[in-house]
Design a protein that fits this description.
transferase, Rossmann fold, EC 2.4.1.-, 13 strands, glycosyltransferase, binds uridine-5'-diphosphate, UDP_glycos_trans_CS
Length: 473
Amino acid sequence: MASPGAGHLIPMAELARRLVELGFSATILTFTNLSAPLDQLLPSLAASVATAALPAVRMDDLPANAHDGRVLVELIRRSLPNIRDLVRSINNSSTGAAPLAALVPDFLCSMALPIAAELGVPGYVFFPSNLAMVALTRHIVELHEGAAFGEYRDVAVPLELPGGVSLSGADIPDAFRGSFTNPRYSKLVELVRSYRLADGILVNTLYDMEPATAEAFEQLAAEQAAGASAFAYPPVFPVGPFVRPPDPDEAAAGASTPCLEWLDRQPTGSVVYVAFGSGGALSVEQTAELAAGLEASGQRFLWVVRMSSLDGRGIRDDDDPLTWLPEGFLERTRGRGLAVAAWAPQVRVLCHPATAVFVSHCGWNSTLESVGSGVPMLAWPLYAEQRMNAVILEEKLGVALRVPAAREDDRCFVTCYGIATAVKELVEGGQKLWRRAENLQKAGAHAWSPYGPSRRVLEEVAFKLKAALGREK
Ligand code: UDP
């Protein structure tokens, strides 16, 4: 069950594909509300996996200014009766279908876990993000252990997560900086507490990207099993990286062709790829600074320009993001830079020999895709857990440089000078980062090789699920 968003659906589809390879059949449940741009994406994701769209639910009564997280949680809550009906119909033995082996909601859909319990099947939560993120949720649950409903406790900073990731206040995802004044926090505590209903948590990461955190979790699980810890949390399973393999058909998909063709004409290892995922939008002012920074850097670039954030004002579906670029920018950079509107075939771009570095918002899928291609990053985190990801990439793995934040009041703002300097530093002098990125790429490729660690971990989970099915017969 994948919550709306390419960053959730793509890795879920890859997990489902792997489970099919291990002998299961898989159906991905998607939400009709909020998923419209994914309609075209879905069929190409995993041919071996079935999909079922949940009926749309009424959402127009929510306040117009409801934040995205609240809308998502509300969408999932209102869809629960439909989820129950759909899962029951899939599990209905009278249809001749195989019995349900497990229900796997993603981290935002964990409200559906009681349905697994009702049906007597295992429930596993899927995290499209990393182990550090799971550690953060574990910390929140532990912090509120024994607390009455509505009694919220502040997260102390710096926050030391198991495995040695240390987060300053600014690097803790906004929603996790708990306090009475943060309206999202109550919903978050409710959500992360529900993870405890799971039999396990499948995580889209690999041991080599978070070795100390993986070991810390093993240690915690061992203590729990030995009865040495009063606090119980589901075991975690690092089973990634789930990165969509480049789809040969994508090249034929109209709008994406020009940027791959353009890359074909650039020298090897020369292009700075700039993209902020499916949701990252810069302000008009920041867009202008980025444009000026790329121009001043003198480097070749491929920039996926998304619609500027105008606080929701005045954006129409047919607005062209390229019209927000500074006047004359496209003409001045013609030949050495290409700006494309809204979307590029990212995995293919990152795998292209011309691509040198990735200026990224550090969404976890983008991160794994960059790692999978051996491309170092200029980390420009914008929201959600991206600042934490940037800490892991820069401080723990050494495959990224962070862009220099320029303003106290806006941690994401970077000046033209900051961008130009960081881009040049990385392209011209980032040998150490290149080497580490190459090593990590090898580890990523090994994770799902025949005896790779992530394959082995998912095989163990599959073995348990099959054994449980066998006991039921
Ligand atoms: N993506 C893409 N083309 C784009 C932007 C994004 O194919 O122009 C894909 C990207 O490859 C990744 C996903 O969308 O698989 C974005 O997920 P991520 O976790 O990086 O960021 P989010 O969109 O969730 O912020």
